[in-house]
Task: structure prediction
Amino acid sequence: MLPILLLSAAGFTVLTTEFVIVGLLPAVARDLDVTVSQAGLLVTLFAFTVAAFGPFLTAYFSRFERKRLFISILVLFGFSNLLAALAPNIAVMALARLFPALGLPVFWALASETAVDIVGPQFAGRAIARIGFGIVCATVFGIPIGTLISDAFGWRSAFLVLAG
Result:
């Protein structure tokens, strides 16, 4: 069950990357010299990108070898979080949010498919639920912890932790 636990942990990081920005918006806006509303568009950009490109990218990448694809997606998330931490302006921050949004739907499809392959169809629901536990933990713990890190050490630190 270690592979399922690792998929859940990766899911925690992926979902925290998506939503941690919500608790950081005032600090991001202040530091990047934009309004909170303008910084809020970073959330919209992420969601719109997932919705607009997710089905196509998931279908396209379904033919790639899974292990390499997983590694590539996780590296993409790490790089994007590092870029967010170093973003000198809102345009670079937008790019830092765009890249993981392209990888997120591919990750979830891949994680679900991989979980079923690991445990077999008999335990598929249980395995997918365990991966979903990473989502719950990200919502309950990841996002608030990201906000606490931001409050204590600055918003860039939250992204550095996610990049790590």
Notes: The first helix runs from residue 2 to 19.
